[in-house]
Amino acid sequence: MLNLLLSQVESIAKEAGQSILLPAFQSQLSIETQKSDGSVVTETDEKAQAFIQKALQKLDPSIGFLGEEMSEEEQLKALHDGGKFWCVDPLDGTGNFTTPMPLFAVSIALIELGKPTIACIYDPIRDEMFSSIKGSGLFINGEVYIPIPIQKALKQSVGFADFKRLKPALATELATKKHYRSQRNLGTCALEWAWLAAGRSQFIVHGGQKLWDYAAGLLLAEEADCVVTDFSGNHPFAEARLSCPILATTNTSLNQAWLCLVDENN
What is the pTM (predicted TM-score) of this model? Predict the structure, then answer.
């Protein structure tokens, strides 16, 4: 049953990416506005969310919906109603999308009993689908991904860090000291999660991701044997919240090294 549902969700994400996001990206005609928090939203974000929401409701009208392009009041209601709900970012990487930089994705997760149980992240530029059912492992384009247990130490690791969302002391420490080999910032949380899960990096350090930024990616990462906590070492889904600092790594020792570093400079 869950396999069928995941297949249906993958189809919805792919159709949104191929039929809505790609044409708008290629034409660059999507009208953009600025949200109150300074982030960018386009009519393509809203069109994609409306399409995804309608398609998901057809699958099961009893499941709630929490999308990035909803009011905070609506998001909090979906979060605290206590039932199952879809958590959706219809266009993760809007800043890249409008630049134009070919790094953006569709992210969909099903939240049950306070945790994600189904997840998919679709990259329409590369036609890559990353998906998972809780307890079933990670799939990339429908094929099972087997994690390769590489125990890289902090100094040899390469990963993703968003300095502007970290506290100044921690951001300065990470930017000026050689604690790790190198860092990147893709401008799309969804693809950073997907690539971490796929073994293309070793860590994600972010001072505050929104629920729709990490809901799908967290499940993908954990199904690929990654370790995910907040900056206090707690699980991001230990409590219901709309945002959370994220520390995700490919192994436990790396997570502990990062926790110590964060604690010393946070």
Answer: 0.95
